[in-house]
Amino acid sequence: MRHLFDESGQVAPLGRKILWWLCCLYTGFIVYLCFLPQGFYPGMPRFQLPGIIQIGRVYLLLIPFNTIVNGSQAGSLQDFILAVLQNFTNIFLLFPLVFAFLFLFEKWRSLRAIIRYSFLMSLFIETSQLVLDLLFDVGRVVEIDDLWTNTLGGVLAYFTYQLWIKAYQHWTKYQKP
């Protein structure tokens, strides 16, 4: 562990290199999840969310807390469960990336910065999906709930980072050299 982290819990040079590579890989994963056509994922069950508005080839879901507001209108229990799971996974979509960025970028290490950057990353994803739908008809749904769920994931990453730093410093304090 001492090769990856220094005594304060921050990443050491080797840990920084590894973390950069992991960030690049995870960014590729986010691109795969967020920007490929909706029907591209094999084995993924198709489900219909209530409240979706279609304007031409653009799909919008602009109702905040849609799963709660329109959950009773889901086509089936399975559709409702998939909608809840989708919200849950959106919370953790940006979590690993934001968690890594907290180690890599000192300016990210405040709650205000995390809220701002997580929201902006989420807004970029949703806006990009809208543009892709306009240009290529990829069938993505631009959801207002994704903005707050992704931002919440960033906030959870921030608190996890704070917990990591305290736990690591406590752990290294009691380790023998």
Automatic annotation (TrEMBL):
Residues 24-164 form the VanZ-like domain. The chain crosses the membrane at residues 18-35, 47-68, 80-105, 117-135, 147-165. The keyword Hydrolase does not apply. Pfam families: VanZ (PF04892). Keywords: Membrane, Transmembrane, Transmembrane helix. The keyword Membrane applies. PANTHER family: MEMBRANE PROTEIN, MEMBRANE PROTEIN-RELATED. This is VanZ family protein. It comes from Streptococcus suivaginalis. The lineage of its organism: Bacteria, Bacillati, Bacillota, Bacilli, Lactobacillales.
